[in-house]
């Protein structure tokens, strides 16, 4: 009872105040404009005392590369003026790199950038700066309309001028410009450098010729002997590039006739190119072997006689016409060249062969795919399976010969190669008929992973249904 009275007394004298809504404090977020920040750094370049300070400012400019459209021409001129005042090549390279980035911005004038860049590198002696300047010209030229021939020809002539530079990197950038801005003399200009002393220049020149050919500038068949010599180059980058050219020329002029060295025999250009590329299967470099196998699959016009030899390790005849004993004897009688015994070695064989001169239809073509399928690198084996499949699709007789080799690839240690071999058989299934012992090997593939079990089932579906 006492507790109840106490509670009522407290209820009478307690005052409940209504809650007061406090006004919310408004915060204003001020975002600094970033458009003027890069322009501010450009203005600070004039006050930089050392090249290190200038480089720090240039790095900030490249990180916050935002300019107002109307400020871009003035900024380009300020950077060009600072370029001429700098003695440090690294700073000059960075300025040209910023020019390259400005060229990608909306509202930038490509013509102004090109003119300023050409003026800046005309008296330049540093190879790094020249290479960066040419790279800038190459990138900016992509934003020029093709109708503006004046600027494009100006860039093209600058690239031709700097081909005389001794630095390999400068020449490589020049090749890229000439390959991109194609003119009437592009092939001739680039072809002169496939015999350069620098392997990097030789390789870059050949790669540029490949690009020109793919863009519609057809290579000349007269280049074929020079390109074949490059297949024996000491540097793998040159050999790999030469393989591409041999393949392109062989496919482009497949019916042309070339003479087999040290003989009177002639064969088609595509057959000779095929045998040359087959020789690269035994190259020391894995990249060259991989490149050779990829290219072999694209040479579908090759004669079946040459193609079938790639699956046989036996050496072929040396491409000479074989005469019967009767024909050889009749020639001796008609010529009257019987041995009298009075002259030393007058009965010696007429044809003295040196072991290095014997041409076995390019002995490298004999068993080329056998070597490729047995290569120690899975990349080469995988490329060999692809090439074998592509050629087999176009040559039914070759498909029958290659069947055993593809089935043997089901036992490869790499799963990707095994799956590729099964898929290849599936693609050429309309040319082949599986035998009992081959079916046993294929059925063994069903014991492997789930992905590998799908491919044999697809093969059986095409083969038997």
From TrEMBL:
It comes from the Eukaryota. GO terms for cellular component: integrator complex. InterPro entries: ARM-like (IPR011989), ARM-type_fold (IPR016024). One of its GO terms (biological process) is snRNA processing. SUPFAM superfamilies: ARM repeat. PANTHER family: INTEGRATOR COMPLEX SUBUNIT 4 (PTHR20938). This is Clathrin/coatomer adaptor adaptin-like N-terminal domain-containing protein. It comes from Apolygus lucorum (Small green plant bug).
